[in-house]
Amino acid sequence: MSNRRFEVFEYRHVIDNMRKGVSDRSIASKGLMGRAKCKEFRALAQEQGWLNPQLDLPSEALIASVIGHSQEPLPQQTPKAEPHREYIKRCVAMDVSARVIHQRLVQDKGYKGSYNSVQRFVAKLKASQPRTTSPMSYAPGEAAQIDFGKGPTLKDPETGQEIKTWFFVMVLCWSRHMYAELVTDQSVETWLGCHRRAFEWFGGVPKHCVIDNPKCAITKACYYEPEVQRSYGDCAQGYGFIISPCPVRDPQKKGRVESGVKYVKNNFAPLRDFRNLADANQSLRQWLVEEAGNRVHGTTQTRPLTAFEDVERGALMPLPDKVPTLPLWRKAKVQADCHIRFERSYYSVPHKWVGKHLWVRATEGLVEILHEHNLLCAHIRQRHPGSRVTKKDHLPAHAQAYFTRTPQWCLEQAELIGNSCVTVITTLLENPIVEQLRATQATLGLAKKYGKRRLEAACTRAVAFEDPRYGTVKSILEKGLDQLPDMEKAFDHLAQAYLGAGRYCRDPDKLMCH
């Protein structure tokens, strides 16, 4: 007989056709059995008396007992991995990949076969030991499953630049009614905002939110004790739901939303054009009510929107009377310039915290910086990347002095000292080549050590010698030249000495004599 394996019920069907007088050619044309095999089987059936229409059709058990001896199994080659069956079974039970199993067999067991042979062997082992699952059942209002899925690529109407999007999908586990939204990122702020809008869409809150392990919700994925993102924890506390992360690499625990994401991607996104993100989300909300909510669900055989309105809406927890604040929490290090960086903007912190890690708590309009539970400072939240908000009292003393002692301040201080000081300060500030603000501040600072009277005298001497520089004024004060007696007469004597001649000129006769 042919090598093709026929089921017993197929043999029984062929016998029934033969009893009705159907020829081998007709049986073959129906695709029931080839002519050669049909001829061979007709002889066997005639021999067994199965073609007598006066008798009942033989049972499948009888047919199997007769043809079983004539259907010898095809010879099969023993797999090269067969001697290592038990070792491979243990590896498969530990969820080790076929690639790693092949590497270990080659290195540890001296295996000479190919990777493909191990891969086929592993596939047969898994097929012989299928994984069993238990369906998850939920009561109305008990849980919602949440996930992200790849969305369509949009174009910016102004720049024409392509924008990647993702679907945020929340599915109520009992009614299968869903909320979906297109977003441009998977940040914590987007995650929290989508939750708020989904709860408002449903008009209530489920008791549990079943999620995967996205970074915007879970900071450390763990089978037993996952660490929840602090902002998401505040959201759960504010709305009163319980976060239920799935085990790592086990998406079957949230199969409802996995199917929901596929349904949205395959039925909403194709063959639609959107002007922008707002237009896409408006169309999506309309589609959720008109089409997705009114389809007959393949599993429940009910319309999700009808089941939700009739039963599950009333089973949800009510929305809180006061809309919870959903702050963003993040740890940030205080840089050497006394600022922390948050969302690409910079906010000042008292200088004593430089080098420390502090908590940043950000709401829609405010950024608060805390050490443990103590508020250190608060700033208006900036939205433009690169923005810098600085409070002058956060800076160290020398930095505050530099920023507060402006040119105008320097001129005002000079007027309190004297006219010569004003002349020196004005000359320094009007330097057309190099900024002299630090030199100006330092010149005025000499009054702290020497007093205003001596500083004015030193400035007078520097102006008289046409050298109004910070270094000159400082040198005069250090050497006490501003305190020489009859300094005015000395200047008059110098004037008489140079009267009618250049200050540094000498008699030509004296220069030429030997």
Verbal overview:
By secondary structure, the protein is α+β, with helices and mostly antiparallel strands. It has five domains: 8-67; 82-128; 143-315, Ribonuclease H-like superfamily/Ribonuclease H (Nucleotidyltransferase, domain 5); 328-399, no CATH class; 405-497, no CATH class. The chain has 20 helices and 16 strands. The chain has helices at residues 8-19, 24-29, 35-48, 60-67, 85-93, 98-108, 115-128, 188-202, 230-239, 255-267, 277-292, 304-315, 397-404, 407-417, 419-429, 437-450, 452-464, 470-479, 487-497, 508-512, and strands at 143-150, 154-155, 162-163, 166-172, 178-183, 208-211, 218-220, 227-228, 242-245, 328-333, 339-342, 345-348, 357-362, 366-371, 374-380, 388-389. The strands form five sheets. A five-stranded mixed beta sheet has the order 5-4-1-6-9, with helices on both faces. Strands 10-13-14-15 form a four-stranded antiparallel beta sheet, with no helix packed on it. Strand 14 (366-371) and strand 15 form a beta hairpin. Helix 14 (407-417) runs antiparallel to helix 15 and helix 16 (437-450) packs across helix 17. It is elongated, with a radius of gyration of 45 Å. Mean pLDDT is 87; it is low at 69-74.
